[in-house]
């Protein structure tokens, strides 16, 4: 029923609660290096001050260097965040949407104690023009808080497909409140169809000791409605890890499906070495990526686990499954040796 089957051992020193196990959470930076920047597009305090004021900037595309340039000039009449001290410490941040993860954020320096900051800085993106034209520019202004709880001061969003590229002049734009969809984190990245199954140790009938340890089977069927990064579509594949193990033994991936925003993978992975108690502490991470020669670009993912925030007694940031993902994992735990089918939305992790 699937074109590829692979088996990997899930091996952890389950009872040795040392920092070496916890260190796997830091390894996630190399597996999903974009996770920090993706989350930051919606991080911060949205309700403390009302958006007001204007921002002056200009857009240009350098054909020779294949570079998109945002010339941020200045802002005027921004909201005051610290009313007692009558101060704001503003900076400007930009994203290309919906592909936040791929491009990452750009931001200006922070200007202290002013509601009329002058920047005169250029934020640069190395990107092909045809890719740029299917994106939107999100430019937002923030107050920089030393403790990390930055305050939102206003934003503007521009559809680059309809932008007049002959207009290279600096222009003023009114800053607007955060849109409701952005505040709620609405971020459609596609939907994954998959099935999972847990085979407990010694549960295969006439071979009472086979398997000697449990197995988790993951059948990645297809993904619908991926982000279209290029006019021709997207060249996608799926990576799989069983966290906290981010070693090569844990890593698996599907083949690349080219030029298709609705790829069919039909790929099965089997992880052995699972004891039943491991199901409480492990997490299956499935991430979808766009394949390119120089680097792969994160499109979205899911994490299957109990979402407790803990793994073998250690606090980890990747044990963050949504309600849907937790319910899917729990159903598998309660129905040994049965395939559990699911349809789960991809998220930014």
From TrEMBL:
It is found in: Cell membrane. It comes from Peucedramus taeniatus. PANTHER family: BITESIZE, ISOFORM I, SYNAPTOTAGMIN LIKE 2. Residues 51-173, 188-319 form the C2 domain. The lineage of its organism: Eukaryota, Metazoa, Chordata, Craniata, Vertebrata. One of its GO terms (cellular component) is plasma membrane. Keywords: Cell membrane, Exocytosis, Membrane, Repeat. The keyword Repeat applies. GO terms for biological process: exocytosis. Residues 1-12 have a biased composition (Polar residues). Its main location: membrane. PROSITE patterns: C2. One of its GO terms (molecular function) is neurexin family protein binding. This is Synaptotagmin-like protein 2. It holds the Pfam family C2.
